Amino acid sequence: MTTSNTTVKPESPLLRRGRGEASYFTIQELCASTTALREGIDNRPPKCAYHLLHVLVDQLLDPIREAWGEPIVVSSGYRCRQLNALVGGAKYSHHILGCAADIIAGNKADHHRLFKLIVKMQQSGQIKFTQLIWEGDGRWIHISYVPGDLRCQVIREC
């Protein structure tokens, strides 16, 4: 996938869903990073990542949030290469593309319930994803949506 050097401002208000409904998530939220701020890293996404962030929200984050019925926080979304390297992300992380989010929804027990809900949504055909990973011993859930690579891989790190 090629990337453009043109960046977009992450301050856009609520994303718009396909039916004209407001999203539960903003581009600003998906690009926010205290590490980037502290280190002076520009974490604005290029146009292609900006588009893929919209796809991630529309195809996964909003449907999951709707089914969950309670707030979900994106603890890490888009990461530029410099930020990704600094936080120890995988070299070819889906976060770099704008295709992944690490989400939290309370405590470890809540994450377990949310993880099971996401698997159930996939099994019932409500959503498809690239990867769903139980990470950090249950402190967060990683989920990605790479168009053309919807293998629905579930990895439970225990």
List the helices and strands and how they pair.
Blueprint: E1 14-16, E2 22-26, H1 27-31, H2 34-39, H3 47-68, E3 73-76, H4 81-86, H5 94-97, E4 100-104, H6 108-123, E5 131-135, E6 140-144, E7 153-156
Parallel strand pairs: 5-7
Antiparallel strand pairs: 1-2, 3-4, 4-6, 5-6
- Which regions have little confidence, pLDDT < 50, spanning 5+ residues? 1-17
CATH level 1 class label = Alpha Beta
Number of helices: 6
Strand order of the largest sheet: 3-4-6-5-7
Portion of residues in helices?
25-40%
Q: How many extended strands?
A: 7
| Number of domains as seen in the coordinates | 1
Q: Could you give the order of the helices and strands?
A: EEHHHEHHEHEEE
Which descriptor suits the 3D outline?
globular
Give me the CATH fold name.
Answer: Muramoyl-pentapeptide Carboxypeptidase, domain 2
At CATH level 2, the architecture is 2-Layer Sandwich
Span from first to last CA? 32 Å
- Percent strand equals 15-25%
Would you kindly provide a written description of the structure presented here, covering whatever features stand out?
With 158 residues, this protein is an alpha+beta fold. It has 6 helices and 7 strands. It has helices at 27-31, 34-39, 47-68, 81-86, 94-97, 108-123; strands spanning 14-16, 22-26, 73-76, 100-104, 131-135, 140-144, 153-156. Strands 3-4-6-5-7 form a 5-stranded mixed beta sheet. It has a two-stranded antiparallel sheet with strand order 1-2.
List keywords for this structure.
158 residues, 6 helices, Muramoyl-pentapeptide Carboxypeptidase, domain 2, alpha+beta, globular
